[in-house]
Design brief:
Length: 473
């Protein structure tokens, strides 16, 4: 039995250790899983941000590439049309842009310049007159066709030598077309000024080599072809769905034909029923409008009733009476009705003013006391303050003890009958004092201010009548 018990204890201990180890393993697995989830979330966030960055970069690169391809295609096209090298064309474009001339004007002017130079070299007198005005002969113009760029610089030097801008504009319009007047600032610099701008373009790295321009132009051509193919694919898809669209169109055509071929009698019935239904719906609509109008009228009547209730409420009536009383008092004061102003002036001089002066004396006494207290706070030591406070507390405590002792004696040493008689006596004395004071005040008002007593009695009568009327209504 002991051996079995020992085995059970040993098995229980080993099972407990195994469970603890298993729990620790589960915790580690959970922690590892949490770390993996956090890492995956971070990787996902980084991936999303990277995707956004790469998408933006791709869009930006696409846009930059498209613009570069358009620019290269333009340069290549103008160069092929004028015979000017691609690199030289880029230099001329920068120089024109820096001289308040846009690329479109330069393109148009160069095409016209090449064409009219060839016409003048062939003997066209209309264009040859423009070159002769600059001092070129027909042979020199013919030689200039071999190097258009160099001949353009020679023309710029001759244009710069002209006296006025009007002359420069007239000559350039003859040899470069309508764009010539917009290229006057560019050509009037002469060959030296234009070459300085062209060298600046190379120093700034604005000139691409011919191979890069050709590649970008070819890419632009591919994009144009792709756009054409896309448009063709859309048209092809339209052909795919054409039968379905044709069926739908045919259905609408049949419906329209059926409507047009409807029997006249059936049309008349349809019109009648439409009119009847419209009339019924209109009547319903009118009833709805009338109902709305009635409800709005009821709301207005309710609001009007509330306004009347507010106007005839006791608060408004009292306010109106008070305003009327104030206005009446002002008129009486200004006109000295019943001697109101004279009596008030006498009351001020004989009664109120002395009280006011007494209050002034009391105020000065309070200020003196406050000054004495301030001096006590600032000009005495803490030991002196403590002794003074002790004295005040001792006197106050003594008075409180005496008063409390008297009160305690009254509570303990008197019967309930005596207590009730004492309280009655106190209340009677207070009430008599109040009544006497009010009676004396009213007697004084009737004697010295009879108009005020009459006014108060009249107002009291009005207020009583208004209150009774309000209660009755």
């Amino acid at each position: 039995m002991a051996t079995i018990a020992n085995l059970q204890i040993d098995l229980s201990a080993k099972t407990a250790r195994f469970s603890e180890g298993l729990q620790r393993a589960q915790q580690r697995v959970q922690q590892f899983s949490q770390r993996v989830q956090v890492d995956l979330q971070r990787v996902t966030q980084v991936g999303q941000r990277a995707a956004l960055v790469f998408s933006g970069m791709a869009a930006g690169l696409t846009l930059v590439t498209k613009r570069a391809a358009d620019y290269a295609s333009t340069m290549d096209k103008v160069a092929s049309q004028t015979g000017i090298a691609v690199e030289q064309m880029q230099e001329l474009a920068f120089a024109a842009n820096q001289s308040n001339a846009d690329l479109a004007s330069l393109e148009s002017g160069l095409r016209a310049f090449v064409r009219r130079t060839a016409e003048a070299a062939a003997g066209n007198t209309s264009f040859l007159k423009g070159f002769e005005r600059l001092g070129f002969t027909q042979e020199q113009v013919r030689a200039g066709l071999q190097d258009i760029d160099g001949f353009l610089m020679q023309v710029a030097d001759r244009v710069a030598e002209l006296g006025t801008t009007a002359e420069q504009s007239a000559v350039l319009m003859t040899i470069m077309g309508d764009a010539g007047r917009r290229l006057v600032p560019f050509m009037s610099q002469g060959a030296r000024g234009i070459r300085e701008l062209r060298e600046q373009a190379r120093e700034l790295g604005l000139v691409m080599d011919e191979q890069a321009v050709r590649r970008l132009a070819a890419f632009n051509d591919r994009m144009s072809v792709l756009q054409e193919r896309t448009a063709a694919a859309r048209r092809e898809m339209a052909v795919w769905f054409l039968p379905a669209v044709e069926a739908g169109v045919g259905l609408f055509e049949d419906l329209i034909s059926a409507i047009q071929d409807t029997d006249p009698a059936l049309r008349a019935h349809a019109v009648r029923w439409t009119v009847v239904v419209g009339a019924v719906l209109g009547a319903v609509g009118v009833l709805g409008v009338l109902g709305t109008a009635v409800s709005q009228a009821g709301a207005l009547l309710n609001a009007f009733g509330r306004v009347l209730s507010l106007i005839f409420s006791p608060m408004v009536i009292y306010a109106a009476i008070a305003i009327g009383a104030i206005a009446l008092f002002r008129t009486a004061w200004e006109n000295d009705w019943l001697g109101i102003r004279t009596t008030a002036t006498e009351a001020w001089e004989n009664y109120i003013k002395p009280i006011w002066e007494a209050l002034g004396v009391v105020w000065e006494w309070a200020i003196d006391i406050a000054g004495t207290a301030w001096d006590w706070l600032t000009e005495t030591t803490w030991a002196e303050k403590v002794e003074d406070i002790k004295g005040w507390l001792t006197a106050g405590w003594k008075w409180l003890v005496d008063t409390a002792g008297s009160a305690w004696d009254w509570l303990v040493n008197t019967t309930w009958t005596e207590k009730i008689e004492d309280v009655r006596g106190w209340l009677k004395s207070a009430w008599e004092w109040t009544i006497n004071l009010l009676g004396d005040a009213w007697a004084w008002i009737e004697e010295h201010l009879p108009w005020l007593a009459t006014t108060i009695e009249t107002l009291a009568g009005w207020l009583g009548e208004a209150w009774n009327w309000t209660l009755e209504k």
